[in-house]
Amino acid sequence: MNDKLKRTTILNISYINTNFTHFLKIIQARINNRENTFIATVNPEIAYYAHQNPKYQSIINDADFVTPDGIGIIKAAQIIHQPIQSRITGFDVFKAILAWGSQNHKSAYFAGAKPNVIADLKAVLKDEYPGIKISGIRDGYFQDNQVVADEINATHPDMVFLALGSPKQEEFIHQYRHINNGLWIGLGGSFDVLSGNTQRAPQFWINHHLEWLYRLLKEPSRLPRIMVIPKYLKLVRKSK
Ligand code: UDP
Q1: Could you give all domains of the chain from N- to C-terminal order, each with its CATH number?
Q2: What is the pTM of this model?
């Protein structure tokens, strides 16, 4: 990691501590140079899981960039008195890289989400990001990872977008990233959002750090996942 980016370590995970525009410039340059790049977007739930699972922790530590995705990580940085400049979400990186990739005719492989979501995503990509060359696009409920890896290997895309949820997407990237140089990023539920199947919180909720509450109200089944946030913050306080 000799990219000179400032990093802040919380519970053994080193998050980039920069602004969105600067980060994007670094990623674009790396894609242009076909540098092998793994971005992990980590929220408190993922950080907590990593803390309990050393193998997953080492996978996250293998990423070239870990972005602070979630207000809970920003809060944790304040607790340890090492503030992080900006939250950087997977969804925002995804949209920005697609827009830039469309202008620059980059190729991309997409795997993740349910078949109906992928059908809608194809339409959105065609309409809103017409310059992207789709080297492959499929849902995330495949049985054989190797089949997907072979498709990526054969089509040699500039960017691989995986929306399989955590830890699956990071495990996949860790296992296969060396078959193709370029960007690899795990995007959680981002295909659901970009395709219009799930709504991201309105800006007001995001600005008031309440995106987690909005998601909970829309999807009450997320409660056990949200409950990890206070547990994570407790661990951070203890680690001080
Ligand atoms: N998913 C998938 N394959 C699986 C399990 C999940 O493609 O075997 C997809 C799921 O359809 C959803 C995404 O992974 O699109 C996970 O979304 P979630 O909301 O859990 O992610 P978050 O944004 O909270 O990290």
Answers
A1: 7-239 (3.40.50.10700)
A2: 0.95
